[in-house]
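Table S2 (text version). Query chain:
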Amino acid sequence: MGQITAKLVKELRDMTGVGMMDAKKALVETEGVIEKAIDLLREKGMAKAAKKSDRIAAEGLASVAIKGNVAAIVEVNSETDFVSKNEMFQNLVKEIAELMAEHRPASMEEALKLETSKGTLEATLIEATQVIGEKISFRRFHVVEKGDNDVFGGYLHMGGRIAVLTVLEGTTDETVARDVAMHVAAINPRYVDESQIPQSELDHEKAILTEQALNEGKPANIVEKMVEGRLKKFKAEIALVDQPFVKDPDMTVGKFVADKGAKVASFTRFEVGEGIEKRVDNFVEEVMSQIKQ
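Corresponding structure-token output:
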């Protein structure tokens, strides 16, 4: 059994919105496995969703570069948010995005060997670390290609806190593609349409919804219909084309795009720091350590 620490309880509370004791009980019951604890709380109807909104973001910027029929989206991290306002750092992120779009490297190893105006990209990152005074790291990138009759949509939210790159088929209207990119930035869908949702994920959700309905005391003969309806709603919530369009909630994204004679081919969304645990400094301990020196 994993140790039920205060940090683990807080993490579960942040993810589910339940009280401290409920979070602790769920962790005890699931032997400290947080994913199982989330499922348990959801089955009891105590947690609305297993959203990972608790992730503590690292700092930095994301960017998009488009060069003809090739586009790239990148994320470059720093230690503090002050660096994102640094002109040298901003220019470096833009240059990296343009390099990825121009050279289309197949791996991070290949990307770091690309030549910049100051040597290899790897050397440039080391120099930036020395000049800025913080560790600067190139975390990830994704390169996308399109056809001549398709269009890219690039969008940066909060100056690059979130970056989105969309590809629409059947249109060359950049405004439409950018509107879809803005929607993706705001709503954060996980798939283009429900055909992309893995069966394992659907089975997992169905099991939770079934247990949830049974725990609500619903008769067994209507549980199946309830689960079917809730599963349909779940699929619509995570599939881009089925979501209400942010600029016009009366229509779905799919309908908005179809009205323009187009179809969503793909999207990529980078949110700075997602999935990275940011270091938490204890200010008091830091001050005390300085005094003792």
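Notes on Table S2: Confidence is low (pLDDT under 50) at residues 48-57, 280-284. The first helix runs from residue 6 to 16.
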